[in-house]
Amino acid sequence: MNKVDVVIAGVGGQGNLLVAGLIAKAALSQGLEAKRSEIKGLAQRGGSVQSLVRIGETVWSPLIEQGSADILLGLEPVEALRYIQYLAPIGKAIASSNFATNPVSFSQEEILIKARKHGFFLLPATELAKQAGSVQSANIVLLGAASHFFPFPAEVFRQVIEENVKRFLEENLKAFELGRQAIAIQQ
Amino acid sequence: MSRQLWTGDEAVAWGAIQAGCSLSAAYPGTPASEIQEAIGRSGSGVPIYWCINEKVAYETALGASYANQRALVSMKHVGLNVAMDPFVNSVFTGVNGGLVLAVGDDPSMYSSQNEQDSRLLAAFAKTFCLEPSDPQEAFTMTQTAFEISERLRLPVLLRLVTRVCYGEGSVATDSTRRPVNETLLRHDRRRWVVVPSHAKLLHKELNARQRELEAISEDLPFNEIHLLSKERGIIASGVAYAHVREHWNGADSLLKIGSYPLPRSLLKRFLEHCQEIIVVEEGEPLVERALARLDPKVHGKLDGTLPREWEMTPDLVAQALSLPYSHRPAEVGLPPRYPGFCVGCGYNRAFAALKRLAPPVVTGDIGCYSLAAFPPLEVIDTIVCMGASIGMALGLAYSGIKPVAVLGDSTFFHSGLPPMVDAVHNRADLLVLILDNEITAMTGGQPTPAWDNDGKAPVTLERVLGGLGVPFQVVNPYHPEAELDEVFRQAYAQPGPMALISRSPCLTEGKRRKAA
After folding, report:
1. Domains in chain A, please, with CATH?
2. Closest chain A residue to B343 measured between Cα atoms?
3. pLDDT tens by residue, A40-62
4. What is the ipTM of this complex?
5. Rounded distance, CA A78 to CA A10, Å?
6. Chain B residue with minimal CA distance to A66?
7. What's the fold here for domain B2-208?
8. Which of B48, B92, B117, B144 is the most buried (most CB within 10 A)?
9. Domain spanning B346-515, CATH class
10. B244-268 confidence digits (pLDDT tens)
C-alpha cells in the first residue's frame, strides 16, 4: 500500500499550497496517482488555509475522511490542532512550534501541551528556516521533517524542489535537510 | 363585498394594495408588466418604481422590506433569471416587511424567448410559492402571500402564467385596506450579511424550516382533496386545474394543488387511495416528480439519511452506508483566526470615518470590505449580492431612511452602475461610498475597466459618475481624521444621490505585482 493522505494546515502566506503541490508532484514522478484540494477563502487576509493531498495507486475522492489522515502537517501549531480530528490513530502529526501572529490572545504554552498530548513532533520551523538562510522556507523545513513517512526516498523530494522552486533554491534545499534531520534526531 | 371583473394582473395589484403594500418595483415584461401599471393607475397612492432591470427591482423591494415595509416586485419569468442573485440570497437573509415576488410565466411563449417554470426556482431557492388558478385566487393569494411572507420572514413567489395574468374573471372583494407597516430598522448582521460563516448556519436553519413551510402549505385552502373513485385520480395545479374542472365527471378522485412546498400528507393520502393517477400541471412535471419521491424504498436527503446542506464527503458516505467510522474529537476552544484588513489598508481608515459618521444604515457589497461587518468595525449592516449595496439603498431611501451604500471600484463596475442610474433618475437621497483600490483585490488582483494597460481605454469612476450626473468627491483616506470626518459629514449632509470616492491603491496586490 503506497497510500498517503496528508492534511496541511496553516495561515495565508505560509506556502501551504506550495508544499501540497510538491508532494503531489513527487507522487506523480513515482508513477502514483495524486489528488489535491484546498480551502483558502479569505486566506489572503490572514485567515486559515487547509490543503489536502492524497497519493496512492488509486485515488478517487479529493477529500480525506476524518480519522484517516496518515500525516497532519502543521505550518502553525494552532492551525494544526484545528484539524486533529482528521488524523488516523496511527497517523503522524508534525508541526511547527513557532506561532503565527493572531490578534486574539491565548496561551501558547497550552497549545503546545495539547499538541504534545496528541503525539505531535514539534520543531521550530521558522528558526530552522532562518538558519537555512530564508525565513520564508519554514514550509520546506516541515516537508523535510515529513519526508520520512512517504513511500519513496528523500531524493525524490529534493528533485521536485529543484524542478519547481525558482527562488532561494539553495536555501530551500538546506531547509529541507534541516527539517529532515530534526525529526531523525527526535526519533 | 363587491364583485369586479379583473385580469389576474389587476387582481395581484389590488391584492397588494389591500394588503398594505407600500412600494412596488418592477421591470416591464409580458405578461407581468400590467401588475405595476394597475397599481400606478389605482389612485391608491402606493408608489411605483420602474427600475433599470429586474435585479435592481428586486433589491429595491428588498431594501424597503429591510425598513419593515411590505413590498411587491413583479417581472416576467426570464426577468427572474436576471434577479436570481438577490432572490436566492434573500431567502438566506430572510425579509423584514413582507416581500412578494410576482412572476409571469409564459407557457407556449406568446411573447417570450423561452418557457420556464418559476415554481422550480422557488423550490431551488427553498421558499414558499403560491399558484393561482384564476383572478379570484390571484387576489386572495397575493394577500395571503404577504401574510405568509411576514409569518415566515421569507420572500414568497407568486407564480402566474399568461392565461391567469391576462385572463379576466370576477373577483369578490371587500374594501378593507390593511394599514401600511411602520418604518423601522432592525439591524441583524448575522442574518443580513451573508458571508460564509453566517450563510453556513443560515442554510441549515433554512433547511430545518422546510417542514414549517410544508405545514403552512398543508393548511391552506388553496389545496383541496376529493377522495372518490379508487380507480382513477387526477391531480392538477394552477390554471391546469381550471382546465381539468371543465372535464371532471365528478366520479374521479381529484386533488387541487395551489401552494408549494407540496402538501405532502395530501399527496400521500391521494397516492394510497388511487390505483391510477394522472397529473396535469402547467410547465415542468414538478408534482409528478415529487410523487415518485414518496416511495418509501428510496433513501437519501429527503428522509435524513444524508444531510441537505454543506458538501458531500467520504465521511458522510461511510455513515450512510453503515460502514465503520470513527475519529478523535476535534479540539474545542482553540483561538479563532479572523481574517482582517491588510496592514496599512486605506479601507480601514475609510470605514473608521464611516463609523464615526454613524448613518442609520449602511448597505454593503461583495469584496474585501465585507470584513467591515465584523469586529472591530461592525459598520456594514447588509451584504446580499453583487451590486445590492446601491440596489437596497434605493428601497431604503424610498422608505424615508438615508442610507450609505458601500462598494469597491470593481463591484461598482460589475453591477453598481444600474442602480446608480435609478438613483439619479429618482433623485434618491443616498450616499454611495466607493472604495477605490484600483484593482479587483479580493480575488487576487485582476484588472478593472479603469486600467489603461496594453493600450486599453480607461473607463474611470470620474468619467462614469460625471456622465451619469452624480456629484462626487475624491478623498484620500490617509488624510488626518478630522479632515476626513468633515468630508464624510458634508457628503452625507448634501441631498443625494452623491458619491464619495475613497482612493487608496491596494498595498498587498501592488507588492505582489512588483514582485512578479
Report:
1. 4-98+106-186 (3.40.920.10)
2. A45
3. 655 556 778 889 999 999 888 88
4. 0.81
5. 8
6. B327
7. Rossmann fold (3.40.50)
8. B144
9. alpha beta
10. 888 888 999 999 999 999 999 999 9
